[in-house]
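User: Hello! My lab partner asked me to get a predicted holo structure for this protein. The small molecule is flavin-adenine dinucleotide, SMILES included with the sequence. Please write out the structure tokens.
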Amino acid sequence: MSTSMTSAGKKLVIIGSSFGGVNTAYFLQHALGKDGEITLISREREFTFFPSLPWVIMGWRDPAQIRVDVVQPLRRRRINFVHSDVISLDASANEVRTEQARFGYDVLIIASGAELDYAAVPGLGPTAGYTHSTFSIDEAILARDALARVLAGERGRIVVGAAAGASCIGPGYEIVMMIDALLRKARRRHHFSLSFLTPEPFVGHFGIGGVGVAARLIADEFAERDIEVMTSVKIAEAQQDRLVLATGAEVQFDFSLVIPAFVGSGFVRSADGLANPRGFIPVTPELRSSRFDNIYAVGVAVALPPVGSTPVPVGVPKTGHLTEQMARAAAHNIASNLRGGRKVDGLDLSGTCIMDAGDTGYYISAQPFLPPRNRVIHKKGKWSRYLKLAFEKYYLARIRHDLPSLHFGW
Ligand SMILES: Cc1cc2nc3c(=O)[nH]c(=O)nc-3n(C[C@H](O)[C@H](O)[C@H](O)COP(=O)(O)OP(=O)(O)OC[C@H]3O[C@@H](n4cnc5c(N)ncnc54)[C@H](O)[C@@H]3O)c2cc1C
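Assistant: Hello! Below are the structure tokens for the protein in complex with flavin-adenine dinucleotide.
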């Protein structure tokens, strides 16, 4: 595969229809115009705004409010959509396979995220285990109904946590604070215990070594809310009414939600030489596979090494904001590679996060995303809840209508 070519007639195949896939498709289409044939393959016809799933669990959002169909918006921009599951990738033959067909490509962009590694902890997960989760509409509905049953009772023990190696722990922070806010508002907080169990060495570490003094603010917040915190926790097993920790200690619950670790998509794991042992794709700063010149990866599919060592493994979160920046950089670099031009560093990322706490919120921004940093911002206030709300509306409209990217994150 040559490292430079022209874009006319080139086949560009994208896998995934979430933050990585749809954004890459839009950015590529803008960069290439009518040149190049873009095909997006995904097992989902709809884009789900994942940051709102905690609101579904709280009963504050109807699932239909946070999903948009991607097929029409993509087709309006002359981007082909294939509704199918990619089952294998032959990188030496430049070919992706689904059950129904084979798709040859000149450039492949993998934005297939990850699979949930419930199997790593016996008893984990809402389908085969005893704990709830928040990585799909179906999971959020199950969690919502189970939580409502427990909150309707006289008393209860609520445990929110994350398994060793988890990287997307932020929603756990939101959910435990939102449950606290809901119970306080109903003047029933004193009938429920709330515990937060995390593999992080301290609350507010977030898999990125913390952000300025945000960790201290969040520790204070949890203390004020009487949320019991256990850090550097490794959950060994989940049973019907308890979590068994690696230390042998047990934490009993009436409702539990535990965020699992991720592993890469099956077709990525089985593609020869593409991924690391966990199934994530090592990339160059251009976001090209370190092994295959014509394969790019964006978002959760990308391998990012952990920040420092921690007593219990914690993954680096590849947030929606980061994913969108990667999509933009990958599209830019692919277009530059096809047509000539300057490349950008797709791993030089800034991170912004809006965390809803139910009755207040946090706005946290880190530039760059990983330490040491040039600038950090952390602000607390109800306004950040409204910002998150507004951002949800904007983002769904962006996917529907290809609105300009705000690029400041959420
Ligand atoms: C509850 C929750 C709250 C969050 N809150 C925030 C937040 O506040 N701020 C923030 O920045 N980020 C947040 N995130 C993170 C954000 O959602 C992710 O960073 C983002 O979804 C990553 O996008 P992605 O495209 O890389 O992967 P994914 O979103 O995982 O999408 C993968 C896509 O690939 C498709 N796919 C997978 N395998 C195949 C296959 N074999 N064949 C075909 N298609 C396939 C899937 O159907 C999907 O469309 C949150 C995530 C969750 C779960």
